[in-house]
Design a protein that fits this description.
The complex is a heterodimer of chains A (114) and B (111). Chain A is mainly beta and 114 residues long. Helix content of chain A is 0%, strand content 49%. In chain A, strands 2, 4, 5, 6, 9, 10 and 11 form a seven-stranded mixed beta sheet that branches. A four-stranded antiparallel beta sheet of chain A has the order 1-3-8-7, with no helix packed on it. The N and C termini of chain A lie far apart (36 Å). The mean pLDDT of chain A is 94. Chain B is mostly beta strands and 111 residues long. Chain B has strands spanning 3-5, 9-13, 18-25, 32-37, 44-49, 53-57, 60-65, 70-75, 84-90, 100-101, 105-110. In chain B, strands 2, 4, 5, 9, 10 and 11 form a six-stranded mixed beta sheet that branches. Chain B has a five-stranded antiparallel beta sheet with strand order 1-3-8-7-6, with no helix packed on it. In chain B, β4 (32-37) and β5 (44-49) form a beta hairpin. Chain B is globular. The model of chain B has no long low-confidence stretch (mean pLDDT 92). Classes of the chains: A mainly beta (114), B mainly beta (111). Chain A binds chain B through residues 31, 33, 35, 40-43, 45, 48, 50, 56, 58-59, 90, 92, 94, 98-108, and chain B through 29-33, 41-45, 48, 50, 87, 89-91, 96-104, 106.
Chain lengths: 114, 111
């Protein structure tokens, strides 16, 4: 039972570099989300998707892009990393039951931008 | 938009009961959920209130009052392992089902 899998788990980037975070889920969920969590803070929604081929902006979308080419995968891209993007990134997926509030999270990606 | 307010920190002793509140401002939602997150871990789903009233799951209970725009998570018989952060969350259909979390409450359980 893999659930939601994120890769990589850790990454250090230099300012200006680019990278892509991969999220894969095997539960056939329509909805997928990317959050960032800064130390001692809550989860802030970056982008989300309500189905294959669709994406939408969340609360803090600037500096990030996403793609949902396949239902099971949701990619988060940083085109030109900045130190302010140092954070822990969580991917999640959800199903229609419980008003789409029961989400399953990956284990997170710890990103440091130096 | 929607906002969910929680106390930032709560401290309680082992064996006690603690209540974590969540007040919200959102125009319509299916229900209120609660999540637990241990340090260094991922959030995990705890409970859901689709209707007003109390839902009980073992030592944990959750309550919702739509008329008061208020909900809470009640933890009984506290154990050291309950030390974690707790988040309330909603997914308003009017906002494209954008799953939104409160700022979280850090619970410290002391011996």
């Amino acid at each position: 039972n893999a659930g939601v899998t994120q890769t990589p788990k850790f990454r250090v980037l230099k300012t200006g570099q680019s990278m892509t975070l991969l999220c894969a889920q095997d539960m056939n969920h329509e909805y997928m989300y990317w959050y960032r969590q800064d130390p001692g803070m809550g989860l802030r929604l970056i982008h989300y998707s309500v189905g294959e081929g669709t994406t939408a902006k969340g609360e803090v979308p600037d500096g990030y892009n996403v793609s949902r080419l396949k239902k099971q995968n949701f990619l988060l891209g940083l085109e030109s990393a900045a130190p302010s993007q140092t954070s822990v990134y969580f991917c999640a997926s959800s199903y229609p039951g419980r008003g789409h509030t029961e989400a399953f999270f990956g284990q997170g990606t710890r990103l440091t931008v130096v | 938009g929607q906002s969910l307010e929680q106390p930032s920190e709560v401290t309680a002793v082992e064996g006690a009961i603690v209540q974590i509140n969540c007040t919200y401002q959102t125009s319509g939602f299916y229900g209120l959920s609660w999540y637990q997150q241990h340090d260094g871990g991922a959030p995990t789903f705890l409970s859901y209130n689709g209707l007003d009233g109390l839902e009980e799951t073992g030592r944990f209970s959750s309550f919702l009052s739509r008329s008061d725009s208020y909900g809470y998570l009640l933890l009984q018989e506290l154990q050291m392992k309950d030390s974690a952060s707790y988040f309330c969350a909603v997914s308003p259909p009017g906002a494209g089902n954008m799953l939104t979390f409160g700022g979280g409450t850090r619970l410290m359980v002391k011996p």
